[in-house]
From TrEMBL:
A Pfam family this chain is assigned to: AP_endonuc_2
Domain Xylose isomerase-like TIM barrel: 29-344
PANTHER family reported for this sequence: HYDROXYPYRUVATE ISOMERASE, XYLOSE ISOMERASE-LIKE TIM BARREL DOMAIN-CONTAINING PROTEIN
Originating organism: Sporothrix bragantina
Gene3D superfamilies linked: Divalent-metal-dependent TIM barrel enzymes
InterPro entries according to UniProt: IolE/XylAMocC-like, Xyl_isomerase-like_sf, Xyl_isomerase-like_TIM-brl
Protein name in UniProt: Xylose isomerase-like TIM barrel domain-containing protein
């Protein structure tokens, strides 16, 4: 058994404390601090709304216009977070960045990332990250590994040049596989792009939900899994093998951020697949039905502990952070941030507890079997696990 308790601090995305349309940012931050979080993942829409609350234009690209007024608001936000005993871990998400073919559009897109650098200094954070591109039009080549790696390398160079120029700590670029991305929808394909970029300040972002959505789950299967294999045990064995490879291949210091989340097992009578061919099949599930880890009483059913244990086993020292999108976050009411902060911190403590007793499955076949036995038993013991209704 693994006996060493993880020392990673705990974090949460601002969007996972309440929707910005219903809930101001400051009360959400205070709810996170009361619950005991130490790190905040600043979501773009939350920053835009915070600017609007200060009478400034935060729509789209305007949110990252480095005027003195906006930088002053960013410094105010960073100071507020620090006064609550927390830090801002990163800003995100950047989308449709890599693989752009037109040189003019490509240059403008990379420069769009660099426009964040002054704000990162103002927030007192060093990490910004992007999701793998979901574009499939003729203007992008997301399957061109050489091109994607070149884009990541250039972004790393731009961040390094900015850091040398202002003398601050090194700014870092993170790259996250997205489960419905055009190419880099797995941790291994995303890691391939990061490795080929070959820059010390370019690293991998691992999101447990996105890993599990590709390598384990199928929200349109009544069993919830069976994306590849029909039985729960087979699905868990394949996942554990993949996570063992992550431990063997990816150095912990090249994982720049880890996000943790579960999801609801859906009731297919009320959750049919999307009929619009332009809507990725996983998108409605991802955007409205994620849960905090191990919330089995709410319909959670995914083996989050296998992903979390593997990330920690690489030697990753950063936060264990929550990124959850859910219809419950859109509800009005002053109690929503506190309720979600409480649920979130309890879930992360449960993750810490479970991974320190999970057999170290990355060490060999015997340990892998023991871990799969353990997780299979946990998931099967849910019985007729609660399924979500819209």
């Amino acid at each position: 058994m693994s006996s060493r308790k993880p020392t990673n601090q705990l974090g949460i995305a601002t969007l996972s404390l309440g929707n910005w349309r219903e809930h101001k940012l400051e009360p959400r931050l205070k709810a996170a601090a009361r619950a005991g979080f130490q790190w905040i993942d600043l979501f773009d829409e939350c920053w835009s709304a915070y600017l609007a609350d200060h009478g400034l234009d935060g729509e789209g690209a305007a949110a990252w216009e480095a005027t003195e007024e906006k930088l002053a608001v960013a410094r105010k936000l960073g100071a507020l977070v620090r006064s609550l005993g927390m830090r801002i871990a990163c800003t995100q998400p950047l989308r449709t960045i890599e693989g752009i073919l037109d040189p003019v559009e490509r240059r403008a897109t990379l420069d769009r990332v660099a426009r964040r650098f002054p704000f990162m200094r103002a927030f007192d954070t060093d990490l910004v990250f992007m999701c793998a591109s979901i574009r499939r039009d003729a203007g992008v080549a997301p399957a061109d590994l050489k091109r994607v790696a070149r884009d990541l390398a250039e972004l790393g160079d731009m961040a390094a040049a900015y850091s040398r120029a202002d003398g601050g700590r090194m700014l870092r670029i993170g790259y996250e596989g997205l489960s419905w991305a055009a190419r880099n929808n797995t941790w291994s394909s995303s890691w391939e792009a990061v490795r080929f970029a070959n820059r010390p300040n370019v690293g991998l972002v691992v999101d447990a939900f996105n890993v599990l959505a590709v390598e384990f789950a199928d929200p349109y299967n009544p069993a919830g899994h069976g994306r590849i294999f029909p039985t729960l045990r087979e699905s868990l064995e394949v996942l554990a093998g993949s996570m063992s490879a992550l431990v063997a291949i990816v150095p912990g210091d090249k994982i720049f951020f880890f996000q943790c989340g579960d999801a609801e097992r859906m009731n297919l009578t009320t959750f049919p697949p999307p009929t619009d061919p332009t809507v990725p099949a996983l998108l409605p599930w991802s955007r409205s039905h994620r849960l905090y880890p191990l919330e089995q009483d709410r319909g959670g059913y995914m083996p989050v502990e296998l992903v979390a244990a593997a990330v920690v086993a690489t030697g990753y020292k950063g936060p264990l952070s929550l990124e959850v999108f859910s219809h419950t976050l859109n509800l009005p009411g002053e109690d929503v941030p506190d309720n979600h902060a409480r649920r979130g911190i309890e879930s992360l403590h449960a993750v810490v507890d479970i991974i320190q007793t999970l057999p170290p499955f990355w060490k060999g076949p015997a340990e892998l079997k023991q871990a799969v036995d353990r997780v299979t038993q946990r998931l099967e013991n849910t019985g007729d696990i609660k399924t979500a209704r819209l």
